[in-house]
Amino acid sequence: MNISKLTLCALMLLAVGTAAKAQMSAHDYNSPVGWGTVGGTITGGNDEGAIKVTTMSELKTALVGTYKHTIYIEGEIDITGLVSMENVQNKTIYGLPGSALVNSIHSTDVKKSGILSFKNSKNIIIRNVTFKSAGAFDIDGNDNLNLTNCSYVWVDHCDFQDGVDGNFDCNNGSDHISISWCRFRYLKEPWEGGSGGSDDHRYSNLWGGSDSETASEGKLRTTFYSCWWDEGCRERMPRIRFGQVHLLNCLYSSSLTNYCIGTGYKCNAYVEKCVFDDVKNPWKNYATSGKYTDYNITLTGNIGAEDEQKRSGSIEYFIPSDHYQLEGYDASLVKDEVKAYAGATLNVEYGQGVTTSIANPGAAAAETLSVTYFSPSGMQLSQPQKGLNIVVRKMADGTVATSKVMIK
Description:
Largest sheet: 11 strands, mixed
Number of helices: 3
Strand order of the largest sheet: 1-2-5-8-11-14-17-20-23-26-27
Distance between the termini: 21 Å
Number of domains: 1
CATH topology: Pectate Lyase C-like
């Protein structure tokens, strides 16, 4: 979109007049990216219908139905068993600073595990939410967050800790998923003696629950952008079946890894400009035995992993640029950027959503190549609208500058 220098100057003046209230990377688009933008849009509650919740029952009530709600989590909410929601639409969940969803119950009772699950749901945004669970325990329990047959979901700047089964899993036909600036980690020692047999089940993210999960054929299309698999993660970062999964500018730094990315049946992974920081086995192939042998993986431009393409079978390689444009930034910047900004680091204000930083590195010195406008919920606009706008400027030096402006 082209705009005049006069208009651009006016927008920049408006931006300067708005207080900078949050840290955000210059490479943060502050909107869904990748697969979440293909064939549809993710608007969530569109920052409408603000509701503040402080208990599990309030959270469940606010999530019911298809009407637009913008839900703000305040304080730590104790979860005593999986909050399982179905047929949810048009919801945004923000975590206010210092908030968290917490399930600290350690039990062999599967029903007491897990935090939040969505089934048959769509158009959901989850931002700046911290999930804290009881610690890895191999009982085939519930996850911190699970998506089952969900579409157009954006999970951004969330912090996932100590999932009993997984930190964040996705399965059974879920599709068009954007995950950006999220942090996955385990702060607690794993629990031994689970019925599944593993005494260390710190397996973070399972994408596709089984090789026979036919509902996921051609789906599970997901983009992970600037995510961080931090200390404590052992495996599944993620482990993928079926999905065309793009991992861009992600950081792997756990000293405990057995492997990072797992390629399973009909996995088609594209791993680009990521950093594998002194970890074991950037990737491992699971699709090597029996009748479930097909898999693809491409690694390019990473630090700590050589460029390569490998596959079994005749499936064509997944190339993200065939479907959407998302270039990311140089791998040499990943470690500093992701460590500084990934996780629940946003400044969220009740009724206002995310307040973003104004002065971003590179914005003043480089020429502006393009300007794109978004609503506060992340919906792309054809032109600025009255009220709050998020302006994303792509600069000639390769950086992306994000600013908040108010149009009267």
